[in-house]
Amino acid sequence: MLEQEEKALCGRLESVRRRLDDAVRASGRKQEDVTLVAVSKFHPAAAVEALARLAGHAVFGESYVQEAQEKQQALAGLALSWHFIGHVQSRKARDVAGRFALVHTVDSEKLACKLHQAVQPPDGEQPEGARTVQDVLVQVNIGCEPQKSGVAAGDGLLRLADAVAGMSGLRLRGLMCMPPLTCQGEEARPYFAQLRGLRDSLEQRLGMRLPHLSMGMSHDFEQAVAEGATLVRVGTDIFGERSPR
Ligand SMILES: *Cc1c(COP(=O)(O)O)cnc(C)c1O
Q: Which residue intervals define the domain Alanine racemase N-terminal in the entry (predicted)?
């Protein structure tokens, strides 16, 4: 990357960090309670490397399996924490399981089973370097949009969370959502509040702590922080617009 581009990139990260700090402070929360996941999909490994080396950023989110694998390999020398935030097709579960610090998008029992089996295969053949327990979030289709992934809030969520909590290869850490695209900023806020409510009642039902709420993107992460987000996923405001692939 050109030095000029790197500078602009670090400047945008700096400004997102400032907005995040302000939001955290305004909601009376602690900085260490909210993690910024820099969503690097469609952007080159060089951009990730620049943020890691020049700005000390270590947490990155990817949405596509092959693209994620390529960047992980290219940047294997850096101590980065990779999150998977895209839809996982069941047949790709093997390529995801054990290879990310957190998978945000478990949305079916079938996928959960495949991830569990991939990290703890019945034949004991563990892929080298992979985790044996995969931290996951359950993705909730909070706006009930037919075209969106995620489990419906209600019985579906209860059943899925219950199943995931019972799989030794998976550690359920919380919930993730994407409000309808048309709802940005303050309009997204009721959805974030709803996800927090779902998490709180799930904690009661399952009798376990679910510390994470993955919610908020470039246009609405401040509102998400106000409603309790612990992971915000910011792409555009850090990396710039994504060009279509
Ligand atoms: C691409 C993506 C983001 C980043 O969105 P921006 O609006 O670019 O900040 C966040 N979450 C998910 C699930 C994504 O796919």
A: 18-242
Residue 143, pLDDT score: 86
Question: Architecture of 3-239 per CATH?
Answer: Alpha-Beta Barrel (3.20)
Ligand 1: which residues within 6 Å by Cβ?
Answer: 39, 41, 63, 85, 178, 217-218, 233-237
Average pLDDT, the chain: 95
Q: Which runs of consecutive H residues, i.e. helices, occur in the chain? A: 3-26, 45-55, 65-74, 93-96, 109-119, 155-165, 189-206, 221-226, 236-239
Predicted structure pTM score: 0.96
Q: How many Cβ atoms are within 10 Å of 79's Cβ, its own excluded?
A: 8
Ligand 1 centroid–CA 217 distance in Å is 6
Minimal-distance CA residue to ligand 1 atom 4 = 235
List of residues 6+ apart from 244 with CB closer than 8 A: none
Average confidence (pLDDT) over 216-233? 98
Q: Are strands 212-214 and 59-62 parallel, antiparallel or unpaired?
A: unpaired
Atom of ligand 1 nearest to the CA of 236: 8
Please tell me the distance between residue 128's alpha carbon and the centre of ligand 1 in angstroms. Answer: 30
Residues 6+ apart with CB under 8 A from 166: none
The span from the CA of 39 to the CA of 61, in Å, is 4
From the alpha carbon of 63, which atom of ligand 1 is closest?
A: 15
CA angle, 242 as apex, 11 and 180 as ends, to 5°?
105
CA-based R_g, the chain, Å: 18
Q: How many CB atoms lie within 10 A of CB 125?
A: 6
Question: How far is the centre of ligand 1, averaged over its atoms, from the C-alpha of 2 (Å)?
Answer: 25
